[in-house]
Amino acid sequence: RISAAEGYLGEETRPLALHFEDMGPFGQRPRAMQNYPNPFSGHTTVPFWLPSEDRIWLRVFDLTGKLVLQQEGVFGRGRHTFDLTAAQLGDGNSWYYQIGGSTWVETRQMMRF
Fold first, then answer.
1. How far is the C-alpha of 112 from the C-alpha of 16, rounded, in Å?
2. Are the CB atoms for 45 and 33 separated by under 8 Å?
3. Could you give the 3-state DSSP secondary structure of residue 86?
4. d(Cα 36, Cα 110) in Å, to the nearest integer?
5. Is the pTM of this model over 0.90?
6. Helix, strand, or coil here: 62?
7. Residue 32, Cβ neighbours under 10 Å: how many?
8. Residue-by-residue pLDDT tens, the chain, 113 positions
9. With left for phi above 0 and alpha for psi between -120 and 50, is residue 9 left, alpha or beta?
10. Cα distance between residue 7 and residue 83, in whole Å
């Protein structure tokens, strides 16, 4: 037979119970991930994860701070991606991108070889 789950505090016996919640791979906060491949040649994928639906934007800047690309959309809970091509980014070989939503923003760097 299986023993009852119990814990002890000094001489006192207390019941124990485990409670599991599906918090997704990153908990209850949105998360921008590194693009792949990085460095890239013809195209790259920028992944992100959301705990709930949100309007998400992607902004890509060159090293001078000039905005070279902007995309946005409404995404539900889960893992999503923005797919980019080298042609969309123009000249250059290094950029910073920001992904953000209603309450968050994260910045990463990507490179082209």
1. 53
2. no
3. helix
4. 9
5. no
6. strand
7. 21
8. 677 788 888 889 888 887 766 666 667 889 999 999 999 999 999 999 999 999 999 999 999 999 999 999 999 999 999 999 999 999 999 999 999 999 999 999 999 99
9. beta
10. 51
